[in-house]
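Quick illustration, no need to memorize.
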Amino acid sequence: MNSPILQLLVLAGIAVFLILRLRNVLGTREGFEKPPVANEEPRQMPRDHGFEVIEGGPDPDITDHVAEDSPAARALAEMKAVEPSFNVTEFLAGARGAYEMILMGFERGDLAEIKPFLDQEVYASFAEVVEARERDGLKIEAEFVGVRDMKLIDVNFYPQDNLAELTVRFTGQLTSVVRDRAGEIIEGVPGEIKTQRDSWTFARHMGEDDPNWQLVATGE
């Protein structure tokens, strides 16, 4: 066998060997495969639509309690501008505690403790009712159960003297009986829980050192 033919056989053998090795490494394609698309843009990850805080956006301390862009919301924003430390949520927590303290002080006729938290006119009306009870020999026995619901229903701000007025509607629950001089129950049932609804207005001059709010009006 001449030399050129021998060289061709050797080269052919090497080519077959390389083809078999490539098949073992890369495998073969079988079944349906999506043909490549020219200039296909890479798939983008979905955006996270979670909560984002936008600087300069609505104040959640306000919009959690009153409608955005309402007169109440604007009044609360003006209060915060005068007194940046003012917090509506904290005010309502304090109002809840004040409601229990003032209501039970009135029911039991003990006004001395709650007098600093009452406007003069409110204190005078409370004192008149308590004095009338004492003249008639009546005694109220009451226990506070809790506040079932409360809502900020009105807000007013008077910038000329920085006076703020916030009205809160309370739905309170308590037990109460009225006894006469002989100790007999003339009103109420012992242990029976009754629901009482009150709308109270608290006022304070924003920016002053005294942090206490006063009860300036009551209603149903």
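Residues 3-26 form the longest helix (24 residues).
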